[in-house]
């Protein structure tokens, strides 16, 4: 049974995870490389470990939330021999290959390992919209999910340890695409003297809400353009949009997503 959770890493995200677990009444031990980050958590009932080894030994389960894959390896390498038989859940962001290699490395040392991807920001951790992707052994996930549930709804995405990172990174690509589009949109409206609040509330939000399901459900990996979207018409539309953006003095870099779409439409036209 996993009753006591240790957290390695008290950056903005690690602190939010620890806070959510404490709020749900879990026993929590925390460790951070540099001192001074545990104060509020300790005041709320967490114990602070003075070393990685002490933290891992204190918990039935250790959640790792550091900067990147290199920092995870740097942190775990000195205590590797003490990790045999322990359960580690890594929610540090990294690439798919890094997640698979980390799982292989740790499992090779007798660690029960789950890879994670946090679909939340620190402010939303523990709220109903937050969810965390996990990949790795299903039976381990089934035991860990109820314990870590307070951090965010636990969602298993497969045995392949790389899948949590894969879906996390791909979803971030979608988010950054939307962010690039909305940044460009408001810059253009502002540059031409439009009212930003009216535009955001009455136009952009309802438009994106209408398009979101169509865009997500219609996406396919071939990046083909369905006939009903008439790529020739869309190429002209995108050229107009880029021209309007240039006329307003919006930096071309902010319109990169439009250039990518124009490239796709022109390719579809060229392919007939
Ligand atoms: P922060 O920059 O706030 O914190 C980074 C943490 O990593 C600190 O605890 C830092 O310790 C530690 N660290 C960095 N390098 C090392 C090292 N070489 N050895 C040991 N510890 C190290 O980042 P966040 O907490 O925001 O993010 C943590 C992870 O969560 C990242 O992988 C991030 O991608 C992911 N994430 C973050 C989100 C966010 O919105 N913040 C959203 C979703 C995922 P020290 O204090 O000593 O510097």
List the helices and strands and how they pair.
Layout: E1 4-8, H1 12-23, E2 27-31, H2 39-43, E3 47-48, H3 52-58, E4 61-64, H4 69-76, E5 87-90, H5 96-108, E6 112-119, E7 131-135, H6 138-148, E8 153-156, H7 163-191, H8 196-218, H9 231-247, H10 256-270
Helix pairs in contact: 7-8, 9-10
This protein binds NADPH dihydro-nicotinamide-adenine-dinucleotide phosphate.
What report would you give on this structure?
- An eight-stranded mixed β-sheet has the order 3-2-1-4-5-6-7-8, with helices on both faces.
- It starts with a strand and ends with a helix.
- The protein folds into two domains: 4-159, NAD(P)-binding Rossmann-like Domain (Rossmann fold, 3-Layer(aba) Sandwich); 167-270, Orthogonal Bundle (N-(1-d-carboxylethyl)-l-norvaline Dehydrogenase, domain 2).
- Helix content is 51%, strand content 14%.
- α7 packs antiparallel against α8 (196-218) and α9 (231-247) packs antiparallel against α10 (256-270).
- 36% of the residues are buried.
- The chain has helices spanning 12-23, 39-43, 52-58, 69-76, 96-108, 138-148, 163-191, 196-218, 231-247, 256-270, and strands at 4-8, 27-31, 47-48, 61-64, 87-90, 112-119, 131-135, 153-156.
- β7 (131-135), α6 and β8 form a beta-alpha-beta unit.
- It has 272 residues and is of the alpha/beta class.
- The chain binds NADPH dihydro-nicotinamide-adenine-dinucleotide phosphate.
């Amino acid at each position: 049974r996993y009753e006591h959770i240790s957290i390695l890493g008290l950056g903005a995200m690690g602190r939010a995870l620890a806070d959510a677990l404490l709020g749900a009444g879990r026993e929590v031990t925390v460790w951070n490389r540099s001192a001074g980050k545990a104060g509020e958590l300790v005041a709320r009932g967490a114990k602070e470990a003075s070393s990685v080894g002490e933290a891992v030994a204190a918990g039935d389960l250790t959640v790792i939330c550091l900067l990147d894959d290199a920092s995870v390896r740097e942190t775990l390498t000195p205590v590797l021999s003490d990790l045999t038989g322990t359960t580690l859940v890594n929610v540090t962001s990294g690439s798919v290959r890094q997640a698979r290699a980390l799982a292989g490395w740790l499992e090779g040392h007798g660690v029960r390992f789950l890879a994670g991807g946090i679909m939340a920001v620190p402010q939303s951790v523990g709220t109903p919209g937050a969810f965390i992707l996990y990949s790795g052994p299903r039976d381990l996930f089934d035991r860990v999910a109820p314990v870590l549930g307070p951090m965010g709804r636990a969602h298993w995405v497969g045995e392949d340890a790389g899948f949590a990172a894969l879906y996390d990174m791909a979803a971030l690509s979608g988010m950054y695409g939307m962010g690039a589009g909305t940044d460009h949109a408001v810059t253009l409206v502002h540059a031409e003297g439009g009212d930003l609040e009216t535009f955001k509330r009455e136009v952009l939000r309802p438009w994106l809400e209408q398009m979101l399901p169509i865009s997500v459900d219609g996406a396919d990996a071939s990046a083909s353009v369905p006939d009903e979207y008439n790529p020739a018409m869309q190429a002209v539309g995108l050229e107009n949009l880029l021209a309007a953006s240039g006329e307003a003095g919006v930096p071309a870099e902010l319109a990169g997503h439009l250039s990518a779409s124009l490239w796709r439409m022109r390719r579809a036209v060229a392919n007939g």
